[in-house]
Amino acid sequence: MTALAAPSRPPRPSPLARALLSDWFVLWLSVLLFVGLLPVLPTLGTPANLANLLSNAWPLLVVALGQTFVMTIGGIDLSQGAVIGLTSTLGAALAATAADPDVLSKAPIWGVLIGEQGGILAGQVAAAILATLIAAALVGLVNGALVAWLDMPPFMVTLVSLITVGAFAIWLTQSENIRNLPDAYIRLGQGEIVSIYIGPKDEPQIPRRQVHDLVTWAAVIAVSAAVLLHLLLERTAFGRQVVAVGANRRAAEIAGVPVRRVIVLVFVLSALCAALGAVLYSARLEAGRPTLGEGTFLLDVIGATVIGGTSLFGGKGKVLWTVFGVLFFVLLGNTLNLMNLSTFHIDMVKGGVILLAALLDVGRTRLQRRLG
Amino acid sequence: MSRDALLDIVVRNGAVLVLLLIVLAFGVLTPGFLVPESLGNVVKQASFIGIAAVGMVFVLLTAGIDLSVGSVMYLAPLVAGLLMREAGVDVGVALLACVATGAALGAVNALLIVGLRVIPFIVTLATLFVFRGFGTWLSQSQAVDFPDAVRGFGLGAVLGVPLPILVFALVALLAHVVLRHTAFGRQVTAFGNDPLAARKAGLPVRRIEAAVYVISGASAALAGFVLIAQIGRLDAGFGEGREFDVIAAAVLGGASLFGGVGGAGSAVLGALIIQTVKAGLVFSGVNLYLQPLLQGGVILLAVFLDGLRQSRLRLLRRRVIRPRA
Amino acid sequence: MTPLLRFESLGKDWFGVPALRDLTLDVPEGAVLGVIGENGAGKSTLMNMIGGVTPPSQGRMLWRGEPYAPLSAADAKARGIAFIHQELNLFTNLSVAENLFLDAFPRRRGLLRPLIDRRAMREAARAVLGRLNLDLSPEREVGTLSPGERQLVEIARALHRDAALLILDEPTTSLTPRETERLFAALDGLRAEGRTVIYISHILGDVRRLASRVAVLRDGRLVGEGAVEEFDVPRMIRTMIGRDLAQVYPTRSAPPRAAPVLEVAHLSAPGTVEDVSLTVREGEILGLFGLMGSGRSELARLLMGLDPASRGEVRLGGRPLLGGPRARVRQGLAFVTENRREEGLMMDASIRDNLTLPALERFRRGLALDREALADTAQALREAVRLKAQDLGRQPVRALSGGNQQKVVIGKWLPTAPRLLILDEPTRGVDVGARSEIYAICDRLAADGAGLLVISSELDELMGLCDRILVMSRGEVVAAFDREEFEERRIVAAAFRQAEDAAPGAAA
């Protein structure tokens, strides 16, 4: 009989350990990175650059929030990239105010969703976005169902979705982009609510006024999403159940948690976040692109989420962590860009960072266990 | 025959059945597809994925995964190509260098997976980007032309059998012998079945796990070389996304994502299936952009069947305390 | 003659709690030593020490007179010890021959050295299998063999390694009578060859048949030892039990009521449970006793909806109990599993999160959770189960002692006011103080009208706590005892299927 008595008092955590496990670790990392590189890259601190940085961060944040939920249940959603492409295309197609038949007449959606006068919901931005959210939810539903009922590994299921949904999006438009988006749509990605003007105050007619958008619609959307999802994860029964499923699926099942339903909903949520991110991205690009979200985008989303602190093993995830993770990743990309490294170098560094993030994850988990 | 037994047969021989079905389907829908010439072409094109799939089977046998093969397919031949261009080495040496580079890249994966115990999925996802990034830096994003001697090698034939098919056959045969008739091969298969028991049985588990990634890297490198040898030119985007085809081929051919199942035959069958589907779709004039969709469907089916097989296995493994006398 | 294996004052502690104490015993060469004892008596600990899986805390072992201190399973193997566990370590996707030779394949000659010599392997395998009278083709995939055949292959593996000592742990659990006979014939053969065998089993009759010597463990100590002729089954049982009760059981606050809360009729699942029928009344604590592998936990899983049943009906409060765990929890069922780490707790989550998990949905206030109510409930539960913990919101459950962890597992069900609570080994790994507190919780639940089904391997626990005790063996209910009929010897005998005085208690 192995009767376990109480373990002795846990060792006091060293300052380094405390720092590593702190919620604000990645924020400090970002600050360090910023402060450290500022003398070398003075343009890093200019308002123009900061505004640019932020505008990159918002869409990434929205998507990463969805990924956070999936990782918290111990899974991963690789299909977000494809969902972005699909919803970008659909949304643009539905809402476009005009279309060029020379470009799109061969596409399957011609005549069905979009014609010379624009999409069937031309100008109705809200309705178009709603339609794309529904499409995204369907993808998430299929992903979740396969994982929950057929016990298929999430990475494989979402990998297949990534390929098929991506291919579907490309097929819909025969790989063409969709332009002529209504103004309201574009404003979502670019429109400013609060902007500051930098330049000599009393100089009339400056050829190029420097306008920096600090608070844009994109920012509002992203921040609201973050707040909402934070509340969802921390303050609702569903959120607690998500954490439980990730922490110990069997124990959750026995405790009466609707495990399968939770899994499906999480994947649906992830797809919805991808769709929302797509809206912000396409608005910035002023076009709907089926290939949006391809390439290293996946790297950014996963990297940002993992380095923020959400564990790949499941059971641990916080919106705040992802916010910092996104900040760090966007800052990293920004600094690498400013250093004039080629995209490929940047990808290499990002790949290395992902590895580091994974190592950090393993390290943090072990540390936590030892300190109890 | 009981329903159980029938299900068993389907699950065990799924791959062959699928291949037959697909060939039949295309043969019926698009006459002219079943001519020896076009079928021969299919086999030739399948060799490329097939060679890499053989290495992937080794990795899958240990319940691991290697997402970096697409980048290895690019980087390793790139090194060989640069050597040929700058140092004037001949084809044979270049080929060796290519395979050696692939093995070295695989060793990097192995180090991170076995040494630092980071899960294979994340490691190979990261190296997918790192290797490609390194490659594009090496090549400055320029295409690299291979000397004519290489094309001669790539387009050549021995006894009427095109070289790619020959290499594929050789690699598959070698893998088959290793997996079935060497201690290492049997131990790899055992490891995937039950890693804990393998450790208890005293098998060199770390070495086994590391070796399969080296093999995967080497075979991906070889596959890349064989294909580029036919084209004569290595573009900067070569191999992008191919890892998925390779994994799909292995799983379609019967290897399991969960480990312990699969052999050289899986790679052969799977590569043939994938290529037949692709060629068939092109031949029947299906919309270019619809093809990946259908391919995805086929792969989903394969993964689904794999999951089914795994749940049956789990059921059978459950402890029995009232045996049927 | 020097004994093959000698233990001198051998002992093992787990975190300061002794699992084995002061064991001094000789295992003579060529003997078949039957080791018997109840669950938790220390048998596995002893075997794990011999097998090199865990080192002793006190005392030492001697192998043929020389000090023996293996650092790993490989060391033990190298000495010539073959440990055949209950969970077989065979690879189902390899052939019999390959399993036998997995770390030492016979090779071909010369240039073909890397290749396995299949013919030689086949012949060697056939030879080894022949020694056990196993008429199997060495080429057969182990996955296609019956459990009995696999067991024998595992033994063949030990034989082939020329093991001097074979340790078998409950080898006949999954065997048919015919396979068991084959096993015994094989063991007789081994004995004739002069090998030494340690045989651990609950089936006392088998031990009598096979063994030359018997060792009885109880509570981590050796309490009986000698030639098998000196031990008839009654003496075996007597020596195994008969401890002085140091536990404090609450006097029951309220008698069981008349209405049934759980009715099970002819429940069966092939391979595990056969035709089980039982009733639990409101306010009743029903105990389920049996040896390891008797089907109790399997029954619990069937009741909880975790595994499918093939036949039979279950009713809770008169209504049929159907569906998966979630539906059953909704109807009023609760399950405390036997391994809290894997199935009962989220180890890295806070105590509060664990305590409030099953009842989460009841704390809804609009869309959000009522956090204050959650915290209050957690506090209330802390008092209800006398949990020794500081910060419920921050401390991870991992940091608690086993007893307190178990209290969390049980406590989390209290807010759901279950009608039937199934507890599987509720005090395993729990210290004495926490145990009596857990018993008190059980009593209170019963007094409030819930039914309890307590599965335990500790008979005095069940005798102290329960109103009735059912005994299971090999997936069937074999005996039932009312409280007035509780007699340790008879209950244990029933579990060992030794019905000395027949006539089990009233209908279950």
What does this structure look like?
- The complex is a heterotrimer of chains A (372), B (325) and C (508).
- Chain A is built from 15 helices and 4 strands.
- Chain A is mainly alpha-helical and 372 residues long.
- Chain A has a domain at 59-196 and 207-293.
- Chain A has a two-stranded antiparallel ribbon.
- In chain A, strand 1 (114-115) and strand 2 (118-119) form a beta hairpin.
- The relative contact order of chain A is 0.19.
- Mean pLDDT of chain A is 81; it is low at 1-9 and 201-211.
- Chain B is built from 13 helices and 4 strands.
- Chain B has 325 residues and is mainly alpha-helical.
- Chain B has one domain (47-311): Orthogonal Bundle (ABC transporter involved in vitamin B12 uptake, BtuC).
- The longest helix of chain B has 27 residues, at 3-29.
- By secondary structure, chain C is α/β, with parallel strands linked by helices.
- Chain C folds into 3 domains: 5-241, Rossmann fold (3-Layer(aba) Sandwich), CATH 3.40.50; 247-332 and 418-508, P-loop containing nucleotide triphosphate hydrolases (Rossmann fold, 3-Layer(aba) Sandwich), CATH 3.40.50; 340-416, no CATH class.
- Chain C has helices at residues 43-50, 73-79, 96-100, 118-131, 147-160, 177-192, 204-210, 233-240, 296-304, 325-331, 340-344, 351-355, 371-384, 402-411, 432-447, 459-465, 488-495; strands at 5-14, 17-27, 32-36, 58-63, 66-68, 81-84, 165-169, 196-200, 213-218, 221-227, 260-269, 273-281, 285-290, 311-316, 319-320, 333-336, 364-365, 368-369, 420-424, 451-456, 468-473, 476-482.
- In chain C, strands 6-7-8-3-9-10 form a 6-stranded mixed sheet, with helices on both faces. In chain C, strands 16-19-20-13-21-22 form a 6-stranded mixed sheet, sandwiched between helices.
- In chain C, helix 6 (177-192) links the parallel strand 7 and strand 8 (196-200).
- The longest helix of chain C is centred in the middle third of the chain and has 16 residues, at 177-192.
- The N and C termini of chain C lie far apart (54 Å).
- Classes of the chains: A mainly alpha (372), B mainly alpha (325), C alpha/beta (508).
- Chains A and C meet through helix 10 and helix 11 of A and helix 10, helix 11 and strand 18 of C.
